[in-house]
Amino acid sequence: MSFNKTALEKLVAGVFGENRNQLLEHENYDLMEAAGLPSGRKVTIVAHPGDVTQGMLSKYPGDRIVLKIVAPVIMHKTDVGGVAILAKDLKTVQSGVADMLAQVPGRFATWIEKKGLTLEGVFEGLSGKELAEAVNRDIRGVMVTDFAAADEKGFGYEMIVGIQNTREFGPVITAGIGGVDTELVAASMTQNQAAVTGSALERTPQQFLDKFRSTICYRKIAGLTRAGRKVVSDGTLLQMFDALFAMARHFGPDGASEFVMDEFEINPVVFTGGVPAPLDGLSRFHRRPKATPQSPLHKLTNLLHPKSMAVIGVSAKGLNMGRIILRNIKGQGFDEQHMYVIRPETDEIDGIRCIPSIAALPEIVDVLVLAVGADQAPGIIEEAAGSGKVQSVIIIPGGLGEKSGTEAIVAGMNRAIADSRMRQDGGPLFVGGNCLGIISRPALYDTLFVPEQKLPKNYDKTPDPVAFLSQSGARMITVISSQSNMAPLFSISTGNQMDLGISDFLEYMVDHEPEVKVFAVYVEGFRNLGGLKAVRAVKRLADQGRQVIFYKAGRTAAGRTATSGHTASVAGNYPVCAALMEDAGAMVCDNFTEFNELTRLALALKDKKVTGNRLAAISNAGYETVGMADNIEGDWPLSMAVYAPKTAETIAGVLKATKLDTLVDVRNPMDLTPMGNDDAHEGVIRAQLADPNVDCFLAATVPLTPAQKTLPAGLFGTEDILTADSYPNRLIRIFRETNKPVIFCIDSGQLYDPMVRMMEQAGLVVFRTADLAIRMLAKYIHSRLRNS
Q1: For 190-235, how does the pLDDT look when each residue is reduced to its tens digit (9 = 90+)?
Q2: Which stretch of DSSP H or E encloses residue 478?
Q3: Is the pLDDT of residue 617 over 80?
Q4: Which of 587, 615, 616, 589 is nearest to 602 (CA)?
């Protein structure tokens, strides 16, 4: 069947014509038919028992009939006796219709009161007999439909498919194990076992089918389990997904329909004669809202590469946030001739000229930093927007939208921002509120209100090709502080995202900041459809070979969107975000440790070639080699490389030359024992890395052995790490010479911190435990291979 847009629009418009936004079950079957997904169901709506005739029943196959109450207010029909399976006998069916029409209204009223639920509209405030009477008036009749006998019954043979229109990502498709226990199964399994989720706008039906093959449901219905029976073909599943994708796109944010689909769900779907047979369905819509003016995103160039800046809220006497920001900007070397302080009745502060008002600025400033109290912010935003003198504003004040009592202030700021969009030039861009600030190394400015003595920012170091994009300023500076060798090109805190969001910066940097190779992204939430924009930007970055490290906070069930169906319970906000970001090519982190370590790996290994997952490793401690082998079979498996004959011969020669041949066998991982000196380590490592069967490498050591030069300078001359032939200097040379991803592990105490710092300052990634090193390397390799 083909996709019938006219029939879809007519059906939904008819529902809205009855002041409803939710389709009834039989209307959902009509919706499926119009979308090109045959429901296979025979349906008749009867208003009275006498409407059931023998001639009508004779058109239904089999010897059983299903009755279902039809009423917009009744969603959970089974709970109130609104579903019955009866013998296909005229009197039995007529009696069943009569009983349902008579008893369901009272049962529903009792069920509502027992559950403590409240109803809206014409049912609001009603209870008991009055509620039952109102429900009776809402009943449209009883649906008579065929009994769909599934080809196979049991766990995994019932399927759920659905569309959820998420606020952040637009429409997403979900498919997995269905039935009454959908949520229980989803909570008991990993996401890709119970169900899979994909973007209806960024994936194709075929890609979604490929992903669906990872689920237990697919293995069951495709007959891939022991003694299992195949009940549906891949072609039929693809036809179903084609229809879902087409419908999601038609009713999606970019669609041509005047309606937007909030939710569509079929649960469960069984298979009869190899054809999908829906046993229940629901869908909800809303009218497409009027488009609002967009932010002038081309002004991101002004924000990130300003030629002029102003700060408002600078104290002339004390060291407040505004003055710290002023000094940080000045200290970066920004052109003081185009720096201004907005402060009346003052000539200059810290050598920077003061201007009495925004309107009095002698030029249009690219960036205005607003470092005043929250209560002053709306007025200044309005002044800045109306002046025509400001291209972008960084809003520093905190507590906005987070502390009770700030609602009016936030509303005033939002109104001022919205009003500015009506200007011919679109008004300024706004970052924040609750923004910790921005560092732009190319533009020589730093608006963080953290003084240099509290947060060294490596200004004397050549900038690294990294952009740190964080909704949380505190998270951003914590990572900058802990990653003491990193000097990001850009460090951007977006705060509350009242205007600009993380996705806007990502999208901009795809085309305008090609020197950024690694993006470390921390997100607590996206603006409307900001997640979809971010997914599209991440996909483009991955296609360019650039790496995105992504962490999403706010993962609990309490943060999930509540809907009337099961789909949101299965897909959930965080699983949706994680699935879509991973599909796009991001390295999605499960915790802060992964975020920190994968950011380090992405920077250090950005120019290394990732061609496979075959690992070679070396240590001088047996426990480390065992720990390495124990951790290669995780969620992102590595395999131990099998040496080429020439490699084994070379390693044997190194062992003989260093007198280890009587103690050590040639194997992978290599255990050189504490007797292995630096010559032995270097010789074996070089042989392993030269092997064409080796794709990636971990060099580990427990540096306490006197056979290696691993001690701080001046402590013990013969083991000094600063000598040219010391262990760390050998590793630094090897790392710079190889094009393979190599990481290191030094598992010892503070005495060996100078050696670790020396290696890290040279650009090497050093872990302090081998098991963590293997897990992070495995996840990194998996992501790089997926995007290659």
Answers
A1: 667 889 999 999 999 999 999 999 999 999 999 999 888 999 999 9
A2: helix 473-482
A3: yes
A4: 587
- Band of the pLDDT at 718, cuts 50, 70, 90? confident
Which value, in Å, is the radius of gyration of the alpha carbons in the chain? 32
- pLDDT at residue 569, rounded to an integer: 40
- Residue 590 is given by DSSP the state S
Residues 606, 609, 614: CA angle, nearest 5 degrees: 120
Arithmetic mean of pLDDT, 596-607: 97
Contacts of residue 513, defined as CB under 8 A and 6 or more positions apart, other chains included, come to 304, 467, 489, 490
618 CB burial (10 A radius; 0-12, 13-18, 19+): buried
The tokens describing 234, both together, are 């891949």
Per-residue CA distances from 256 to 260, 427, 532, 587, 708 (Å): 10, 29, 18, 34, 70
- Dihedral sign computed on CA atoms, order 206, 212, 214, 218: negative
Strands 464-470 and 488-493 come out as parallel
Least Cα distance to 174 among 156, 150, 192 occurs for: 192
Q: How many helices (H) and strands (E) does the chain have?
A: 26, 31
Over range 266-283, report the average pLDDT. 92
Is the pLDDT at 67 greater than 90? The verdict is yes
pLDDT number for residue 439: 96
* Of the candidate ranges 173-187, 381-395, 587-601, 747-761, the one whose mean pLDDT is the lowest: 173-187
460-481 average pLDDT score: 93
The C-alpha atoms of residue 300 and residue 440 are separated, in whole angstroms, by 12
Cis bond before residue 125 (omega within 30° of 0)? no
Output the six-digit token pair for 228.
């299992």
Q: Residue 356: which of 394, 397, 326, 312 has the closest Cα? A: 312
Calpha distance 473→617 (Å, rounded): 38
Non-local (6+) Cβ contacts of 358 within 8 A are: 310, 312, 342, 368, 380, 383, 384, 387, 389, 390
Q: What residue has token string 């109104």? A: 415
State the pLDDT at residue 560.
39
Tell me how far apart the alpha carbons of residues 678 and 366 are, in angstroms, rounded to a whole number. 56
Report the alpha-carbon angle 352-378-310, nearest 5: 15
Q: Please answer whether residues 392 and 364 qualify as being in contact, where contact means their C-beta atoms are separated by less than 8 angstroms.
A: no
Least Cα distance to 669 among 707, 634, 701, 704 occurs for: 701
Concatenating the DSSP letter of every residue in 71-89 gives -TT---TGGGT-EEEEES-
Residue 564: pLDDT band (50, 70, 90) is very low
> Could you tell me if 199 and 170 are in contact, meaning their C-beta atoms sit under 8 angstroms apart?
yes
How is residue 369 written in tokens? 């930093």
Judge residue 11's burial from the number of C-beta atoms within 10 Å of its C-beta, 0-12 exposed, 13-18 middle, 19 or more buried.
Answer: middle
- Say how many C-beta atoms besides its own lie within 10 A of residue 764's C-beta: 22
Q: Write out pLDDT tens, residues 410-457.
A: 888 888 888 889 888 999 999 998 999 999 999 999 999 988 888 888
659-683 mean pLDDT: 96
Alpha carbon 597 to chain centroid, angstroms: 18
Q: Which of 473, 409, 484 is nearest to 439 (CA)?
A: 473
Cα dist from 540 to 492, 508, 514, 531, 537, whole Å: 20, 11, 12, 14, 5
Tokens of residue 236, six digits: 């039929």
